[in-house]
Structures are given as C-alpha cells and as structure tokens.
Amino acid sequence: MQSEVLTIYNRAKQPIGTADREKAHTNGLWHETFHCWILDDTAEEPMLYLQRRSDTKKEFSSLFDITAAGHLLSHEKTEDGIREIKEELGISILLSDLHFIGQFRCIPNQVKIIDREFASTYVYTASLPFEAFSLQEEEVAGIVRVPFREFFALCFRSQTYMSAEGFIETNGYREHYKNTLSLTDLVPHSLTFLQQIALAINELIQERKE
User: Fold this and answer.
1) Does residue 85 sit in helix, strand or coil?
2) Which of 13, 28, 70, 127 is positioned for an S-S bond with 84, CB 3.0–4.6 A?
3) What is d(CA 86, CA 83) in angstroms, rounded to the nearest whole number?
C-alpha cells in the first residue's frame, strides 16, 4: 500500500514541508484533516449523526466519532476532503451543501501515536434515513443518531450519558442498535475540542432558526 504523503505545518499553520502519515504521527507533526458532522435540524429536537469506527481499525476501533473524517494529502485542498463523505458513508454531497464552522486544533489522546491535526470542520444539515448510508466496511461499522442537546450536555459534563439509536453492520448484515453512550464510548478527543465543536454547531442551529 502506497504511503499517504501529508503537508506538514508549524503551530501557526504555515506549511514547512511534507511527510508520510506514519512519520507525522510518530513525530507529532501538524497536518490538516477534514471533518464533517451530519446534523438533522428539521425537527424541534436536532439530532447529530455519529459513526461507529470499524472493529478492525488500528486506532480507536469500535468507538463512536465524527460522522465522516479523514486526512488531507499533500496535493489536496481543504475542499477535496469532501471525498471522505462519499468513501466512508456512500453519500454524494456538494461542497456548497456544507456549512463551514471553523478550523480547530484536534489532538486525540493516544498512547502509540501523536496525532496533531488542524481540522477543517463542516456541518451537513439533512434528515437522512439510515438506508441512505452505504458504509465503507474497513472504516465504518455503524451509524447512530444522538440528540444534539444531550451531546452538548455531555461535552460540558452536565450529564454523563446520551441516548443513541441506529445500526451496526457486520458482514453486510445490519442490526438495530439502541443504547446510551458516555465519553468513554467516544474517540478520546479533548474536552476543549468537543466543547468548541458543540458551541459551533449550536451557533449554526440558532442561525438557521432565524
């Protein structure tokens, strides 16, 4: 498998060179990623879609995370990251369909690698039936919806669980999933990162109500 070459930045996000993904993670080099959260704000209770990472992933297997996300290669622009949505979820979306909510420093808590990301972050607002998702098996094992209000409260530690419902897919077979999730069920992003995301999505929800 050909190594993924990433653009490397300093802390001020000035490009300083390139490195393969393994070296970037081993040495804690800053690089850019694309994040997209899918949000259904058509009802009174906005719902956020989360992906469940595949059981075979080297990092954070079986944990819940951003709806779609991935690294940007050295030859790609930020907007090229939209390919991740199609690859991981099987959903075709135009860049014009997305709401840009900011670029955030994302450093998940990990032991074996140091993943320092400038995460260009978007929200796609849509009410999607679970049948609309065609998952990339080696990357994604399921999709759930959680009440955004509960996600927000979880990020700010005002409650310890949020309700989740969706499906888990194994060898092409989908099984209904309904459970409560805590922070330990999520990829271990820092609370600061999660709180910034929650605030930015909440601001978008309020803007769309006006």
Assistant:
1) helix
2) 70
3) 5
Question: Side chain identity at 72, as an amino acid letter?
Answer: L
Cβ neighbourhood burial of 113 (10 Å; 0-12, 13-18, 19+)? middle
Q: How many domains would you assign to the chain?
A: 1
Q: How far apart are CA 186 and CA 64, in angstroms?
A: 5
What distance in Å separates the CA atoms of residue 64 and residue 104, rounded to the nearest whole number?
A: 19
Q: What is the DSSP letter of 130?
A: G
The pLDDT tens digits for 154-167 are: 999 999 999 999 99
With vertex at residue 74, the alpha carbon angle to CA 84 and CA 123, rounded to the nearest 5 degrees, is: 35
Domain span including residue 104: 5-209
In sequence order, what DSSP letters do the residues of 163-196 get, joined into one string? EEEEEEEETTEEEEEEEEE-GGGB----HHHHHH
How many CA atoms lie within 13 Å of 161's alpha carbon, on the beta-carbon side? 6
Rounded mean pLDDT of the chain? 95
Cα separation, 143 vs 164, in Å, equals 10
CATH number at residue 182: 3.90.79.10
Query: Measuring CA to CA, which residue among 155, 126, 158, 156 is closest to residue 143?
Result: 126
